[in-house]
Design a protein that fits this description.
single chain, about 210 residues, mainly alpha, about 0% strand, rod-shaped, disordered C terminus
Length: about 210
């Protein structure tokens, strides 16, 4: 591996740094999204059962102990359940919007690495070809294969390394995006469900929302 790094030239260190960064970001995001995605159906059912008993404190406590944006949205809604429907809806929307950046954090880093890694590899190829032409100019007309082997190694290895990093990083990025979209869908469903539940509860109890 170290020999290939040397033959690939200085560009290889940039590609290596990009691959290490991408791996660190992917693992951090994977762990975060794994914790953020819960069984929203079971969670919501439990919250409804508690709220039907008018135990708001317990419902809020359950939300605080449950990780993920769904629990955060439901908690915000419960704390504002006595507000007017339009205010309650706005509270839920604001809570949802505040969660989106947390889910998407660092994903642009993966997208950027997937896009620039092949370009960095291409830069290494160009530098390798430049070295080959320098050798041609210095040693013409007698050129031996060994004279240009270094430039050829640099050109080929850097291109291959750039593609070898870009392809899995792009796959990892799309995988994480699909996880984020799944969580956001759960958020939307939970927001609609908790809004409907709380407004129905207020109507049944004959509670007039605050003016």
């Amino acid at each position: 591996m170290f020999e290939l790094m040397q033959k690939g030239g200085p560009i290889m260190w940039i590609i290596m740094a990009a691959s290490v960064t991408a791996m660190a970001v992917f693992l951090e995001r994977l762990f975060h999204l794994h914790r953020a995605q819960i069984n929203s159906d079971d969670f919501m059912e439990g919250i409804y059962n508690v709220l039907k008993r008018r135990n708001v404190v317990e419902a809020v406590s359950i939300c605080e102990e449950t990780p993920g944006p769904v629990a955060h949205i439901v908690r915000a809604a419960i704390l504002k359940q006595d507000n007017r429907p339009d205010e309650l809806q706005r509270t839920i929307q604001e809570a949802g919007l505040s969660e989106v950046p947390r889910l998407e954090r660092n994903l642009p880093v993966l997208a950027t690495i997937a896009q620039i890694a092949p370009l960095v590899g291409l830069l290494g190829t160009i530098l390798g070809m430049i070295n080959i032409f320098i050798v041609f100019q210095e040693n013409a007309p007698l050129i031996h294969a060994g004279d240009v082997a270094g430039g050829m190694w640099e050109a080929l290895i850097s291109t291959g390394a750039g593609l070898a990093v870009a392809i899995p990083v792009y796959v990892a990025y799309n995988f994480l995006v699909s996880r984020v979209e799944s969580i956001m869908l759960d958020m939307e469903r939970a927001a609609v469900d908790i809004f409907g539940f709380l407004t129905r509860q207020s109507e049944r109890a004959g509670i007039k929302p605050d003016a």
